[in-house]
Amino acid sequence: MSQDNVLLRINNLQKNFGGLRVTNNVSLDLRAGIVTTLVGPNGAGKTTLFNLITGHLVPDSGDILWNGQSIVGKSHYQIGRIGIARTFQDLRLFNHMTVEENVLTVMEPSAWIWQPGGSQARKTRKEKVRHILERTQLADKAGTRAIDLAYAERKFLSMARIMAADAKIWLLDEPASGLDRGSYELFLELLRTEVKKGVTVCIIEHNLDIVVGISDRIAFLDQGKLLADGDPATVLKDPHLAAIYFGDQAT
Amino acid sequence: MLAYILNLATLICINAVLAITLNFIMGYAGIFSIAHAIFFGVGAYAAAYFSMHVSASLFLAVPVSMLVAGLLSLVLALPALRVRGEYFVAASLGLQVLGVTVFSEWKSVTGGLGGVIGIPPVELFGHAITDPVQFLLLTLGCLLPILLITNILLRSSFGRNLKAIRDSESAAHAFGKNVAAIKTLSVVISSALAAVAGALYAFYLGFINVESFMLDTSVLLMAMVIIGGTGTLLGPIVGTVLLMLLPSLFSYMWFLPQTEIGAIQQIAYGSAMVLLMIFRPSGIVGSRKRSNG
């Protein structure tokens, strides 16, 4: 993979919470059109890394480059607008809005009382919402409030929102956790289709079937440190990393 | 009797404007302000001052009061951007206390505790509105467009932005929403529209003082919104009608000791609020369905 394909470059990133170093000199490249999976035990600093990339946290040192330009210090909504979108482990859906509104509002970033583009753009947005809801099998729930959905449906609504964001990089925080087999197959199919279209994905996942099934690269984190970054076969077969990840089970 | 009904109807319309505008930020943006009476007061004092010194024309005095309240609301927007939930309630309480102090002490504009007297009747195309029926129609003529404007806004992308922020500010941020700008705009719109109620109130009574803009007014407005149904279109109006009519109904109940009417009202209000929050937490107009999460 050529260096030119690097969409997002993380350089020597460091973050402390009080005396605890949660991100320790992490350097990682997210390359265009591939799936990078962040693996590591709980507390490894995976979600913190997402929070640092999206501006929810500000690093103590180091840099994050988007297409060669530093995005450190930009507010999180500005980072959202440049093409980096994320899901949350606890979903953070717009619970009292309908499924359709949840997706539609993601396409309406303007703070003003109107959106640019007039009625034609409005029509296009509605059409796109319909298409996304069909793909995520939520079309018949369009008028249902997010809070009234079943668990798997809530997970897919989270995916539907990120699909609506038109982002270049998706940061997915445990998107498939708790899904049944059928839903999980649908999720993998959705993700593969979007990656084929050119979306760059960075995913935090504990389910090794998904990790193996979708990843082009794996980055292994532990206690804030990046211990390995390479192709799935190499990283997952490293006995040292397996011992960290599985503890006693690996031995 | 007719004069009494007209008076009650006019005051209901004025309070309905306040409840609708409070619901705009409280029910849709999740900004729980207990300083709404301050913007009611700012509108009233601005309209009174302008009509006594410049012009009593509706088309001048009302926009001026809206402008003043809209600009001053940035003071409220500032803490709203920094803190959320119960912390903002405390910050708005501070603003309410501060506002009442200014109303009481800035004697050259507000007349201090004595208030402003001799506010001229409002003029519409050069015609002074002194007839109670005409004034009621004028008040309705303000209430209906405000209801319409807020409804259109809430059904638009702006309304969805507000609801998104209310439900998850961090997710709204992550999807590129400028939360600070959206919140500020919602507070400015709400306060400017509340100032319309203030201007109507000043013109209607011809006299205003700080008593009308105290904390109990802010709390009563919040009760109107909650009882009617937070985040619903008609809830604030239903809540206003109910809370404004109850005192009148009590005074018509001959079997109640007239000297204790005030205390009975308080007991009835308190009990109704507690029962409503237990059995119908979404308010009278709000959804019956309880959320499952």
Care to describe what's here?
The complex is a heterodimer of chains A (251) and B (293). With 251 residues, chain A is α/β, with parallel strands linked by helices. Chain A has a domain at 1-83 and 169-180 and 199-251: Rossmann fold, CATH 3.40.50. Chain A has helices at residues 46-53, 76-82, 99-106, 118-135, 151-164, 181-196, 208-214, 232-237, 239-246; strands at residues 6-17, 20-31, 35-39, 61-66, 69-70, 84-86, 169-173, 200-204, 217-222, 225-230. A six-stranded mixed sheet of chain A has the order 6-7-8-3-9-10, sandwiched between helices. A four-stranded antiparallel sheet of chain A has the order 2-1-4-5, covered by helices on one side. Chain A starts with 5 loop residues before the first strand and ends in a 5-residue tail after the last helix. By secondary structure, chain B is an all-alpha fold. Chain B has one domain. Helices cover 72% and strands 3% of the residues of chain B. Chain B has helices at 2-26, 36-53, 58-72, 74-82, 85-105, 107-110, 132-155, 157-167, 169-174, 179-205, 215-228, 235-251, 261-279, and strands at 116-117, 123-124, 127-128, 207-208. Chain B is globular and about 55 Å long. In chain B, 48% of the residues are buried. The mean pLDDT of chain B is 90. The interface between A and B is medium-sized, with 34 and 29 residues.
Number of domains of chain B: 1
The count of DSSP E runs of length 2 or more, i.e. the number of strands of chain B, is 4
Low-confidence stretches of chain A: none
Report the end-to-end length of chain A measured between terminal Cα atoms.
34 Å
Q: How many helices of chain A in DSSP terms?
A: 9
* N-to-C series of helices and strands of chain B: HHHHHHEEEHHHHEHHH
CATH architecture descriptor name of the domain at 1-83 and 169-180 and 199-251 in chain A: 3-Layer(aba) Sandwich
Terminal residue distance of chain B: 50 Å
- General form of chain B: globular
In N-to-C order, the SSE pattern of chain A is EEEHEEHEHHHEHEHEEHH
Give the percentage of residues in beta strands of chain A. Answer: 15-25%
Helix proportion range of chain B: over 70%
